[in-house]
Amino acid sequence: METKIFKIENAKSNVNWIGRKVTGAHDGTIAIKDGEFIFTDGKLSGGNVVIDTTSIVILDVKDPATNAQFAGHLASDDFFSLDKFKTATLKITSAVATEDDYVVTGNLTIKDITHPIQFKLTVDVNGDTLSATGKIVVDRTKYNMKFRSGNFFTNLGDTLIYNEFDLDVNVIANLS
Fold it and tell me: Cα(166)–Cα(17) distance, rounded to whole angstroms?
């Protein structure tokens, strides 16, 4: 069995997020701190990704004061509790190759709460460089982010925030 490890290039990788509410959506970026993909006999077999949750940037709110207020709210205990939890992690536990991509299963940990997650990941290995793209849909309420969730509060009207947010992942990694 041949094992290869591809280390994520933080500066060349990005994660875009989108959170939706009744009246629209917000979007931004968040940085990858560290990570790797493990290949066994030419197939994705494992890995992990560490996200720097303190790096959350909001792109759609242009007014500096409103942006700062929103960023502060995302940092609060209503959402990511950034004073206590500086990172989130994804540990890949299995990857099943399909015709076009992989179906990846893993454990996602946010705020020290871990739940299984599954998503599709397109992976291309060209020599010593790996590129991977995928969309991960996260139910924030599983990670104690219940603010304005219809599952926990009633009569929210147009202040309701949908439970799921999307992470669009674009990763470049190099053989280590």
Answer: 5
Name, in order, each residue with C-beta under 8 angstroms of 140's C-beta and a sequence gap of 6 or more: 79, 149, 163, 164, 165
pLDDT of residue 52: 97
Which pair of structure tokens corresponds to residue 99? 């015709």
Contact at 8 Å (CB) between 173 and 132? yes
Q: Which two tokens stand for residue 52?
A: 């720097």
Structural domain of residue 85, as residue ranges? 3-175
CA-closest candidate to residue 138, choices 160, 166, 168, 172: 166
Q: Which among 37, 31, 2, 1 is positioned nearest to 16, based on CA atoms?
A: 31
- pLDDT for 102 equals 98
Total domains, the chain: 1
CATH number, domain of 86, equals: 2.40.128.110
Task: Give the whole-angstrom CA distance, residue 140 versus residue 158.
Answer: 19
Spans of the chain, pLDDT less than 50: none
Decide if 173 contacts 130 (C-beta within 8 A): yes
